[in-house]
Specification:
This protein is α/β, with parallel strands linked by helices and 273 residues long. Helices cover 43% and strands 23% of the residues. It has one domain: Vaccinia Virus protein VP39 (Rossmann fold, 3-Layer(aba) Sandwich), CATH 3.40.50.150.
């Protein structure tokens, strides 16, 4: 078995659940809302959220009246999602620790399912897609979200540029990161069809997040995902602080109405079981 990357280890995700929520839901929440609209959920429908993280999609579906099971392999993520469910006093959603590559659910138990930037981390993404399809009833709908073009993802491009400026001799891992293995419309359509989904179509989704406090955003961003935490632990505190200054300067240069913004594009794959 291939060695797992830092973002494929459950404990690494659980340790940063709250930082992930603050740093990424400004963008991922927009993709989740778009996927929810495309699925056209009806009240009372049974919905499965796979690799739910801190639960932005599942929470939205529950607020819309669906009956949601949100799953994630990281106990820390599930714990944070359960806190959010309790805070909102939502009765239509439960959260369980579960491996998306081996879902502990009956065949055909759900009307719809989704994975928003979650399944892309699986060591065996094809198995994850097959498991999601298995969990859907005949004709059930699925929405899978991946990045459209990881090489030009602003989130990471600004990091790479800042690191290169501060530590030009630093060599990043040569292999594509786990989250970049499934990207773009063609690859997503091919993988979904290979898993048995029918009527597959791909929609591009664009998210824009205003960053009102860049320094605070950066402080949480360094801890907000296992690959980032690993990178900055390698660089050390002094270099990380210098990278942060470069990152914030570059972020401020990309503004809208005078406020720094983060832009990202994702692909949403829609299909039927």
């Amino acid at each position: 078995m291939a060695e797992l990357s830092p973002d494929q280890v459950a404990g690494n995700w659980g340790a940063i659940a709250s930082d992930y929520e603050r740093a990424f839901e400004g963008l991922s929440g927009q993709f989740a809302a778009h996927a929810l609209r495309l699925l056209g959920l009806r009240r009372g429908e049974r919905v499965l959220d796979v690799a739910a993280g801190t639960g932005v999609f599942g929470l939205m579906a529950a607020r819309a009246g669906a009956k949601v099971l949100a799953t994630d392999f990281a106990p820390g993520m599930v714990a944070r999602l359960r806190e959010r469910i309790a805070e909102e006093q939502l009765s239509g959603i439960s959260a369980e620790v579960m491996d998306g590559q081996a879902l502990d659910v009956p065949d055909g138990a759900f009307d719809a399912g989704a994975s928003v930037l979650g399944l892309i981390f699986f060591p065996d993404m094809d198995r994850g897609l097959a498991e999601l399809r298995r969990a859907l009833r005949g004709g059930g709908r699925a929405a899978i979200v991946c990045w459209r073009d990881p090489a030009n993802l602003q989130l990471m491009t600004l990091v790479r540029q800042a690191v290169h400026k501060v530590v030009p001799e630093f060599q990043a891992h040569a292999a594509p990161p786990a989250w970049a293995r499934l990207a773009g419309a063609g690859a997503l359509k091919t993988r979904m069809e290979a898993a048995g989904f029918r009527e597959v179509e791909i929609v591009t989704s664009t998210a824009v997040q205003e960053i009102d406090e860049p320094e605070a955003y950066w402080s949480g961003f360094t801890r907000s995902a296992p690959p980032l935490a690993h990178l900055f632990s390698q660089l050390g505190p002094e270099a990380t602080e210098a990278v942060g200054r470069e990152y914030i300067e570059a972020l401020r240069a990309q503004s809208r109405r005078g406020m720094p913004v983060m832009r990202a594009e994702a692909c949403i794959g829609l299909g039927r079981a």
